[in-house]
Amino acid sequence: MNLHAVKAIYRFEMARMWRTAVQSLVAPVLSTSLYFVIFGGAIGSRIPEIEGVSYGAFIVPGLIMLSIMTESISNSSFAIYFPRFTGTVFEVLSAPVSWVEVLLGYVGAAATKSVIIGTIIFVTANFFVTIDVAHPFLAITFLILTSVSFCLFGFILGVWADGWEKLTIVPILVIMPLSFLGGIFYSIGMLPPLWQNVSLLNPLVYLISGFRWSFYQTADVSIVLSLGMTGGFLLACVLTVRWIFKTGYRLRT
Amino acid sequence: MARVQPILSVQNLSKTYAGGFEALKDVSLDIEPGEIFALLGPNGAGKTTLISIVCGLVNASGGTALVDGYDISRDYRETRYRIGLVPQELPVEAFESVYKTVSFSRGLFGKPANPEHIEKVLRSLSLWDKKDEKIIALSGGMKRRLLIAKALSHEPTLLFLDEPTAGVDVELRKDMWGVVKSLREEGCTIILTTHYLEEAEQLADRVGVINHGELILVEDKNRLMREMGKKQLFLHLQQTLDAVPASLAGYELELIKDGTELVYTYDTQGERTGITSLLADLNAAGIHFNDLRTLQSSLEEIFVDLVHKEDPS
To answer: Alpha-carbon distance B85 to B51, whole Å?
Structure first.
C-alpha cells in the first residue's frame, strides 16, 4: 500500500480545512448554535417533553447528524470536484495509487473534518441543554459511520458533477429536505399513521433515529435496523466508488 | 551484445474516443533509456493521447505499453513510480505554497519526505527563493517550472514533457533547454512534444512524427536532417537574368528575387554535389556572381514536408 500517498492527500486536505477554518468549522457550528437558541431555547421551552426528553435535548442528535451529513457531502464533493475543475486531478490519476488509497486520503480527511465538527457541535450543545449519552461507544460509531458514508456519497457527487450547480443541488434539494423530514425536530411517532409509513421510506430517518437512540434510548425504528441501513448505505457508496475507478467514469476518458 | 531493454515499449496502441474519433491508430514505438525523444505532430495528431495513455490518464482501446518491462495496466504502480509528467496546461493549486506542493507530489508518488532532494530540484529550476510563495503569485514561466519540479520530485527515470515551453519567453525557453539537457546527463529519459521545431532540433536524439494518430516516422534526428534535409546554394548575380539559360537546364536552377539570385538545390549525400560543374558552366555561359551562400533545411521544413505529404490538402 502507498501509505506516503495516503498521508500526502490526507495532510493536503486537512491543510485546506485549516486554511478555510471559518468556512469549514465556524460556519456550521454557528448555524447549528442558532438552531439550539431558536428551537431549543426560545420555542423549545414552550414544547413539552418528547418521550421523556426535553425538546432542546431531543433535537441535539438530529442537528449533529444534519451538520455531519451536509458538511461531509460538501467537503468531500469539493475535495474531488475542485481538482477536476482546475485540472490538478491529473496528478492523482497518474500516481501509483489504488482507489482505496485515494479514498483513504480524500474521504479520510473529509470524515475527520465532519467528526471534528460533530464533536464541536456536541460540546456547544452542552452550553444550551443538559445532554446524557446513554451509549457513548454506539454514538461514536454512528458518528463515524455517518461521516464516512456521506463523505463517500459526496465523493461520488464530486465525480458526477459537471458544474458547480450540480455540486450544490443535491445537498440543498435532496439532503436538506430529507433531513428535516427525517425526524430532526420531531419524533416520527408524532405523525399521522400514513405519514409515519411514508417517513420510513426516507433513509435519513434510520440514521437520525439510531443516533438519537445512542443518546436517549428512544427511537422511531429499531437500532439494529438503523445500523443495518447505515452499513448498507456505506457499502453501496464504497461499491459505487470502486466502479468509478474501475471504469474511469468521468475521471479517465 | 545483449540489447538494452527499452524504457518504454508501445505496441499497436490505439485509442478511439466515445464519439468515434480515432486518436491513435496502431502505434508502436520503443524508447531507449537515457535518450531525448521528440514527438512532433500538428494539433490533434495524437501526441497528448499517447502520453496520457502511458501515464494512466486515458484508457487505451487496444495494444500494450510497457515501462521498464512493466505493463501500464497490470503493473500500474511500478510504471507510475518511474514516470514524471509535465502536462501541457498549467494545472496548479493556486493557494498552496511552492515547497508544499512539490513535497505533496513526492508523497503522492510513494516517496518518503526528502527535503534535500526538494531543495535540489527547486534550486535547479531557480525556484528556491520562491519556495514559500503561494502559487497564485508566480508568473506563467515559473508555474511551468514548478510543474517540472513537481514531476521531478519523486526522481522519475522517464519524464514526459508535453509542450514544456509553450507560452514561455525566449530566454526562459533556453534556460529550460539547459534543464532538460542536465536531466538527461543525470540519466533521465525524456519524451517531449513540442510545437517549436527548433526545440526538437536543439534537444532531441531521435524524432518521431505523428499525424492523424499514426506514427509516420521515427528517426535519429541527425540522420533525418542529413537524409531528408535539402541543401541549397544561393548565388547573387552581378547582372539580372530574365530566364535560366537553356545550357543550365540540367541543374534545375531556380531564379528568384526578380532575377538577381539563382538557387541550386543539391543532395549532400550524393556521390557528387554538382557544384563544381555548375560553377564552370555558369562561367562558360557568362553568368557571374558577386556573392554566394548555402542553406541547410531545418527540422521544421522537414516536418512540414512530411506532414504535407501525408495530408496534401
So the answer is: 9
Does A86 lie at the interface with B, CB-CB under 8 angstroms? yes
Give the one of B80, B108, B112 whose C-beta lies nearest to A9's C-beta: B108
Fill in the DSSP letter of residue B156.
-
Cβ pair B92:A86 closer than 8 A: yes
* DSSP reduced 3-state for B191: strand
- pLDDT tens, position by position, for chain B (313 residues)? 556 789 999 999 999 988 888 889 999 999 999 899 999 888 888 888 999 999 999 999 999 999 999 999 999 999 999 999 998 887 778 788 999 999 999 999 999 999 999 999 898 888 899 989 898 888 888 888 899 999 999 999 999 998 887 767 777 778 888 888 888 888 899 999 887 777 888 888 898 988 888 888 888 877 776 666 667 888 999 888 888 888 888 888 888 888 899 988 887 666 677 888 888 888 888 888 889 888 776 666 666 766 666 665 5
Using the beta-carbon criterion (under 8 Å), do A94 and B85 form an inter-chain contact? yes
Q: Which three-class secondary structure state does DSSP give residue B295?
A: strand
| Backbone torsions φ then ψ of B28, nearest 5 degrees | -125, 135
Task: Give residue-wise pLDDT tens across range B28-52.
Answer: 999 999 899 999 888 888 888 999 9
Q: What is the dihedral of CA B251, B257, B259, B263, to 10 degrees?
A: -10
Task: For residue B207, list its beta bridge partners.
Answer: B38, B219
Which of B83, B91, B109 minimises the CB distance to A87?
B91
Residues of B in contact with A23 (CB under 8 A): none
Give the pLDDT score at B172.
77
pLDDT of residue A218: 83
Interface of A with B in 90-129 (CB under 8 A): 90-98
Residue A86 is nearest to which of B56, B79, B91, comparing CB atoms?
B91
Question: What is the amino acid identity at position B198?
Answer: E
Angle of helix A99-125 relative to helix A27-35, nearest 10 degrees?
Answer: 40
Instruction: Give the predicted TM-score (pTM) of the model.
Output: 0.80
If DSSP codes are grouped into helix, strand and coil, which group holds residue B112? coil
CA distance B255 to A130: 101
Residues of B in contact with A91 (CB under 8 A): 91, 105, 108, 150
Contacts across the A-B interface (CB distance below 8 Å) = 77
How far apart, in Å, are the Cα atoms of A181 and each of A185, A192, A198, B56? 9, 14, 10, 44
- Secondary structure in 3-state letters for A21-32: HHHHHHHHHHHH
From CA A164, how far away is CA A168, in angstroms rounded? 7
**CA–CA dist A211, A207 (Å, integer):** 6
Specify whether the CB–CB gap between B187 and B96 falls below 8 A.
Answer: no
Q: How far is A105 from chain B (nearest CA, A)?
A: 10
Please state, in angstroms and rounded to a whole number, the distance separating the CA atoms of residues A73 and A75: 6
